[in-house]
Amino acid sequence: MANIPATPAAAVATGHRASPWPRSSPSLPRRTAMLPSTGAAAGPRASWSWRGAAAVARAATGSDKAESSLFSEVVRRLVVAEFAQILFVEVSERLDTFQASGARNQNYMAMYSSIFGGITKDPSAMVIPIDDHMVHRGHGVFDTAAIMDGHLYELEQHLDRFLRSALMAKIPLPFDRSTIRSILIQTVSASNCTQGSLRYWLSVGPGDFQLSSSGCANPALYAVVIESPSLQVPAGCKVVTSSIPIKSPQFAVMKSVNYMPNALTKVEGEENGAFTGIWLDDEGFVAEGSNMNVGFVTAGKELLMPRFDKILSGCTAKRVLTLAEQLVADGRLSGIISRNVSVQEGKAAGEMMLIGSGILVKPVVQWDDQIIGSGQEGPIALALYDLILEDMRSGPPSVRIPIPY
């Protein structure tokens, strides 16, 4: 685990990393964790290690699959067995076993937590307190930034939105903007990840299980670096009109952790053989996808997007609008507009596309039962994908921040 300097200058001056948390960050004590007992008082556990048992299983079978099976069997047995008090060190071992079981399908390279005031590269330690109000009340906000060729893409733009969301959610900042920015950059640096994504969260913090955040002494900042060695391919997809109610504008424009409607919209789309669902606003106009913006190319060759007043202001979508000026200049587009879009107009468009930091630009070839345009990936969507990808790789300093590995 590595500690974080309060400012980049402090790291240069001292050569060491110190926690920016206003209080000192003591090392984790050796403590015990009590699990509920189903019978009489439970005594100390026998000296049995999940990690050791898993290693024996691997040695016997020569396969990591045995470890996963062992993990599942132990969990099943514990459901019906008496639980005993376990030491914190064994909690750590069991977390390691869970990590090794293959239950996670992404590679987490580093995590920063203001709770322990530093960076860890151990995925088993990438946890947050259960009484953090972001967990049990959803009182938190988040944002992201892509990592491309050792640079953070549009960090400043995403960070500005992040802080606006925190203000709307009434979450005080644990540090000023420059310190948060420094922490995020240093977390990516410690990860040695050159391609992937950075996700970060602000919470009112841990403290209790009440509804009010008045018992939370300090807000919390978390950040995780996720490795993604390959990029999304701009293949055409199907979308469906979502039956899940859209968030009210007050919450739609805030990037909070309350993503249940978004998750259900995505699931509903997948259940219907589609990539995602498309939301309509309270007036029946096209709003957005589950976690991406929507764009169209009209019959008059205009790039058309719904207005951002009732939906999340997508940083990638706004950058695409800027880059699309190049297609206006060379005649491939006649203009760029933002206004209300009816479902009928959207389905009759020459092209439709989804836009977001995780997919960049993804062509839509079918909406419900309606084929969009020719039914193939449209040339404007593919051109915009190439433009945003080029911008990520060689754009101006305003959108690319080099990581000091």
TrEMBL record:
Keywords: Pyridoxal phosphate. This is D-amino-acid transaminase, chloroplastic-like. GO terms for biological process: amino acid biosynthetic process; carboxylic acid biosynthetic process. InterPro entries: Aminotrans_IV (IPR001544), Aminotransferase-like (IPR036038), BCAT-like_C (IPR043132), BCAT-like_N (IPR043131), Class-IV_PLP-Dep_Aminotrnsfr (IPR050571). Belongs to the class-IV pyridoxal-phosphate-dependent aminotransferase family. Residues 1-30 are annotated as: Disordered. Gene3D superfamilies: 3.30.470.10, D-amino Acid Aminotransferase, subunit A, domain 2. Its cofactor is pyridoxal 5'-phosphate. GO terms for molecular function: catalytic activity.
